[in-house]
Amino acid sequence: MFSAQGPSLRELAVQALSSVERGYDLLAPKFDHTPFRTPDGILDAATDALRPLGPFEQGLDVCCGTGAGMRTLEPLCQGGITGVDFSAGMLAQAREAHPDAEWVRADVRALPFADAFDLAVTFGALGHLLPAERPALFAGVYRALRPGGLFAFPIGAPPPVSSGLYWALLGFDLVMRMRNAVWRPPFVMYYRTCPLHAVRNDLTAAGFSVATAPMTSLGRRQDGSPRYRLVLARKPGEHM
């Protein structure tokens, strides 16, 4: 799962016992050599699904980490692109990799933007928010977008109960809940708290109109349904 350039077991243990912010500050220099970084295949599939909906001007990567989402924003946005994250360590890596982008340190539950972007994306970050915190994120993205702007992110289909992945994700979430029950500060990272129906309801409550697009290049499940969908949340108004 980890390359030779990735973190050691000790480094992962220290991260797991830290806060989310401090943990990612520590992990940042080696983050791109871990399986936690969004794979290029998912980024490219998102780019392909969004391309017919553009072109876009200003783009925003929410919870940008080391800047992997620039792979999607750069070919789609004709204007500037911005990444926002609360980890100074992750932003330092992103700034080094993409010096032409704008990087902002902020809590995504209180985004400091208004009517500034035409496209916002996020990859692999919703599990860092408790379900009760999602409305604040979605409201902030809504404010950050111009009328007609689009918020997009991939979401995976739940694995079948008979699969090893189902039990691995369930086990991880249970371990994290036990860890957070007995250790402070908490480290919020859960894989099973963002089902599509709940995310759709929260986006709708924030004012978005919500659709999804199948990411067929990422494969299909045995019943023929796509393994991943791209959530497309549109802010009402005319896209300029």
From TrEMBL:
PANTHER family: METHYLTRANSFERASE, OS06G0646000 PROTEIN
UniProt source species: Actinomadura chokoriensis
Record key words, sorted: Methyltransferase, Transferase
Keyword Transmembrane belongs to the record: no
Limits of the Methyltransferase domain: 60-149
CDD domains named in the record: AdoMet_MTases
GO molecular function, one term: methyltransferase activity
InterPro entries named in the record: Methyltransf_25, SAM-dependent_MTases_sf
Single GO biological process annotation from the record: methylation
Presence of keyword Methyltransferase: yes
Name of protein: Methyltransferase domain-containing protein
